[in-house]
Specification:
With 159 residues, the chain is an alpha+beta fold. It has four helices and four strands. The chain has one domain. The strands form two sheets. It has a two-stranded antiparallel sheet with strand order 1-2. The protein is globular, with a radius of gyration of 16 Å.
């Protein structure tokens, strides 16, 4: 694999320490700072303030140690340490595979917003940072079949 940072297995239920939940004010500060959107996929729904370094691993409630993720991305991240506040991958070599997420189906398959979030989530989790700068999905003509994904500087598109 790609030298994952903080890719430890999830703790057993009896190993999870108790800790104080961040205040509602701190959670709101984090969400405001992050533009009230998920830093992994761009969603504006079901937002949660996530500990970058999980509380289980010693993370604190300091707002600089927190990031905004939607419920789906926060659940997927689990106790891993992933800096979606960073725009440059911590990986030293290409991952062996993309992180797997279910592709949009049914009515969602016809909605560009669902594809945008799917692509951002997949690539940002794969790069373990906020690597995606822009996703362009056209509605008609060439753009319908030719999508463009721009990455932030420092993230290899060759991966």
């Amino acid at each position: 694999s790609g030298d994952a940072v903080g890719a430890d297995p999830a703790p057993r239920a009896d190993e999870v320490p108790s800790f104080a939940e961040p205040t509602e004010e701190a959670k709101e500060q984090v969400k405001r700072r992050d533009g009230n959107r998920c830093l992994a996929c761009g969603s504006t729904r079901g937002l949660q303030a996530d500990h970058i370094l999980s509380a289980y691993r010693g993370g604190t409630n300091d707002i600089d140690q927190m990031q905004t993720l939607c419920k789906v991305c926060n659940k997927r991240k689990g106790t891993r340490t992933v800096f979606f506040t960073s725009q440059r991958t911590p990986l030293r070599r290409a991952p062996e595979a993309l992180e797997h997420f279910d592709v949009p189906t049914g009515d969602e398959a016809g909605d560009r917003g669902h594809w945008d979030r799917f692509l951002r989530r997949t690539l940002n989790f794969t790069f373990q940072c906020a690597a995606v700068s822009d996703v362009k999905i056209g509605g008609k003509g060439d753009g319908y079949y030719n999508w463009t994904i721009d990455l932030m500087t420092g993230n290899s598109p060759a991966w």
